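Annotated sample (chain length 332).
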Amino acid sequence: MKKLLLIILSLVTLLSFTACNNNAVVYTPEKPYWLDEKDFGNKVVTVNETAVYNVTYKPFESPNENVICEFADNNTFTMTVVDTELDGVKCYLMTSTCIVSGSYTATANSEKMEFTDTTVNKTWFTWNSGFEFIKSEQEAESTLPTNLTASPDKHGNRFIKIKYKTVIAYGDKNAESTFTITGENKETLANYFSLDDGETHTFKKYNKGNYIDSNMLFFAVRTFNFAEDLNYSFSSIDVLNTAKHSLALSASEVTTISPKGYGIKLHSIPTVQENAEIYKMKISIDETYSGNSITCSYFSETERWHHALFSMEAPLPYKLGTLVYTLTSLSF
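Output written by the structure step:
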């Protein structure tokens, strides 16, 4: 039986979310922030937005004593949205790139594994009173312990670096996914996935009900009309487990922060606004499954902040800690 390792440095680790089992109210997304009223509909307009985040590490109060985690200070996450064409069709492309460096050390024998991991997510989409997804890709290179205690597995590995690519091609009714192992030693890496190299899978009627592409979870929220009682239920495809999960988004708190105090730059200019309202959201699997939710904060104002993601906390598996993403610059 092959063991599927969680991809800890990918933004979307669906199976590490907590179950919430709430009865979510269906909300219709409002007009996207990038469209004017005269553009509302399926017109593709010019968009060129870049948001840059600093990624820091925060240990748990009761950390995993079997692994020492150290992360560099210059980790980054970048999200871009541009208008483009795919196979002659005008559309939008959202790209997110996460680059994280650091090391893991097994306390049992001081074995150390240094890494620089990169995850690149791309999704092509259009908008017509809601998202219409065309294609999505994820290319990931991730390093992690092979188990909770960082003890040698049956292959003799305490840590493993895995590389893979997933693609989802969306049709009107069905979606087809493809999984590819991209590392040099494919035979060894194959032991750590539940899928075979090159395996495909068809998800029938994937968009029956509310659906959001997994790469777009943290971007799609920006098209909503924020409210304190916001709840939204939807599904998302998890290629690595050939499953479609039920998820829920809920607003947990409304507060204000000082963008100036965080040194955020708008169009390369330091912000001078003293206060800005943000909505804290939680994204969770709406199934019976234990784990941790991802917490995000978004600016409520669209004119100046475009509903941008301000911060996010994403827990790592094996009680390794949390990665904290904080906005440093926004341009559009």
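Annotation: The two ends are 48 Å apart (CA to CA).
Annotation: The first strand starts at residue 48 and ends at 58.
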